[in-house]
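Justification of computing resources. Each target in the renewal requires a structure prediction run like the one illustrated here; the chain below, 309 residues long, is used simply to show the kind of job we budget for.
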Amino acid sequence: MNGVLIIDKSPGLTSHDVVHRARRILNQRSVGHLGTLDPMATGVLPLVVGSFTRLAQFYLSSEKTYEGTVRFGFSTDTYDAEGEPTSEPKKVALSREELENIAGRFRGIISQTPPPFSAKKIKGIPAYKLARRQKEVRLEPVQVEIKEFEIVSTDADRLTFRARVGSGTYMRCVAHDMGEFLGCGAHLESLRRNSVAEFTLAEAHTLEEVAGAKVPLAGSTAPPDHCPIGALALLDELFVHPRKLLPSLPSVTADEMTVAYIRSGRPVNLPELSRARQVKVFSGQRDLIAIATRVAGTLFHPKIVLCGS
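Resulting structure tokens:
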């Protein structure tokens, strides 16, 4: 089983929890995710399954979109609603104008220090493990890009936003830093991820929906984790159509001889795509077999082969 499956993550689950459950549901050990989502957060978590885990390298710098709520009045150690308060609660009554002014500081390329409760590593140890042991956590500021940060609505002590950000941006930090600038403390109260790269909520499914799709055929006595191949038809419909993946790369449908060469890792000629640097190569409409890189002229080398020989 190879493909990309978009999960609408529920609150309370880590990204690793989702991967672990997906492995059991799909009876597939090779499952990974494209971009960590905090336990409190919900929304788009793309999973790569089988040989498609090799495509993860193309999504390391993916753009993401979010919507969420910042609560003002106190900060927390995790920078979100799941943490312990680190400042005394204050009654605040912030105007829309004040919030619009502070939001302007968080647009464009900014310097951001990752939160102590994060997966960033310090001498090989994830920062959150040190933070849980109440060890000192020192992380260096990094440059991140917040391409859009729109205030949707405001209350006296809350701000609802939509954001479009570059890779590596922590919305928890945005909330925390807003509170620091205003001197009243703040944390991220809720967060929902609406998209990662080309993947959106419109094509996302809950783990329960995925588990429900994997059922034995009528009359079969096989347990759910050992379904006959025919029973996977419904499950297959939940995967993203391979033609939609990596939309910036052109596609080509190869003939049988070209497919055979690619399966064995041999260079092939693709005359109709001579100007492209990289291409997606298909066998038929749905079978993505390789990502090929142009060597010279019309000659392409299958850099990533997604099918066996």
